[in-house]
Specification:
Layout (H helix, E strand, L loop, with lengths): L22 E2 L12 H14 L1 H4 E3 L4 H18 L4 E6 L2 E6 L4 E6 L10 H5 L6 E8 L2 E8 L8 H4 L4 H4 L11 H10 L6 E11 L10 H4 L11 H4 E12 L6 E11 H4 L3 H13 L2 H6 L6 H18 L1
Helix pairs in contact: 11-13
The structure holds protoporphyrin IX containing FE (HEM).
The site of protoporphyrin IX containing FE has 20 residues, from strand 6, helix 7 and strand 8.
């Protein structure tokens, strides 16, 4: 049952459709430290070491925003979790201490000669979130840097430098009624200091957090293996808590993505979640099911959920 606590269940209605489900966050925090911190940081660092080109990309013009984000996140880690992190800044001299990992980072703000990695790459090794910088230029929002270890079937290399609307080209129906233009206008109006949060969801077969487009052949094939019998073990509801924050100094946008997984066997323990998940999967428009990779096993998954709802009814 403990895996259910704190899991950001994404469904608020019985029928899912794309919407700008962003809400303002109070307190305005861009990141969260959870009980999985150490395990996830270990995985993030392994991925960065083995596949750096895949997991980190930056354009040179992102450097000022990278510094601003490093300061912001070290400050936030320390102020929200003082028992686990400390951060001091005296003039330009900075010292960040990560007590959970027994590490420290000493550097001079905006002096690249004092750090071995780019600032986003360095601070990204202390947070569970994937970090994306959207440069706010006069003609739109552009993806100018990112540290992305846990993408849900997309590629940082592919979208680097792309404009917001083009990034979303593959998403079915998202251009209809100017939807994605409205979302872009919404983002461009976010004021410094405010944080907006939305949830996105998908399903992962197995409990793999790193599912980049580049390794689809490794993890995507498991979609063929789902049966009514093994769905509870294999299927994981994958929720991305995404936050948007306008940088007060550089006016670019920081987009953070915190990915959570919940095994179906755990999800069904909560009766209201079981029913809501069932309704949403059952009524999911086919083009969205296809895009999210659910079509292959949707029938098996629904049978599994129906069996469990039936068991629940008989147990009452
Ligand atoms: C500004 C930061 C954002 C970035 C960098 C970003 C990036 C992406 C990427 C790379 C994808 C996958 C596209 C593909 O399959 O090729 C995606 C999917 C999507 N994005 Fe965004 N996005 C951002 C913000 C938003 C916001 C604010 C919304 C609000 C509606 C949104 C709505 C969606 C939707 C609906 C999908 C499809 C997801 C799914 O069905 O799993 N995005 N986004």
């Amino acid at each position: 049952m403990s895996r259910l606590n704190g899991f950001p269940f994404p469904f608020t209605k019985d029928q899912y459709t794309y919407s700008n489900n962003s809400v303002p966050l109070d307190p305005a925090k861009t990141i969260t430290v959870t009980a999985d911190y150490k395990n996830e940081l270990e995985l993030i660092r392994k991925l960065l070491q083995k596949h750096h080109q895949r997991c980190f990309r930056s354009l040179p013009l992102s450097i000022e925003s990278q510094w601003e984000i490093m300061l912001l996140l070290f400050n936030e880690l320390a102020s929200c979790n003082p028992e686990s992190f400390t951060f001091q800044k005296m003039g330009g001299e900075c010292l960040f201490q990560n007590h959970l990992l027994a590490e420290e980072e000493a550097f001079v703000f905006r002096d690249v000669s004092t750090i071995d990695l780019e600032p986003l790459d360095l601070v990204g090794r202390h947070v569970q979130e994937d970090l994306i910088i959207m440069g706010d230029r006069h003609d739109g929002l552009f993806l100018e840097a990112g540290q992305l270890c846990f993408p849900s079937n997309w590629s940082l290399a592919f979208v680097q430098g792309m404009e917001f609307k083009s990034i979303h080209n593959q998403v079915p129906g998202i251009q209809n009624d100017g939807f994605i233009d409205k979302v872009e206008r919404f983002i461009s109006k976010i004021q410094p200091g405010a944080v907006w949060e939305r949830k996105n969801w998908s399903i992962t077969v197995t409990n793999k957090l790193d599912t980049p487009l580049e390794t689809y052949s490794v993890w995507g094939k498991h979609r063929q293996e789902v049966t009514c019998e093994n769905a509870g073990d294999l299927i994981h509801l994958r929720v991305e808590v995404q936050r948007l924050f306008r940088l007060p100094m550089n006016h670019d946008v920081l987009f953070t993505i915190h990915t959570y997984l919940l095994q179906l066997n755990d999800l069904i323990q909560q009766e209201s979640w079981l029913k809501s998940f069932y309704q949403n999967i059952k009524t999911l428009p086919e083009e969205i099911a296809e895009y999210k990779g659910i079509s292959t096993y949707r029938t098996e998954l629904l049978r599994f959920l129906e069996n469990h709802m039936e068991k629940g009814r008989r147990g009452r």
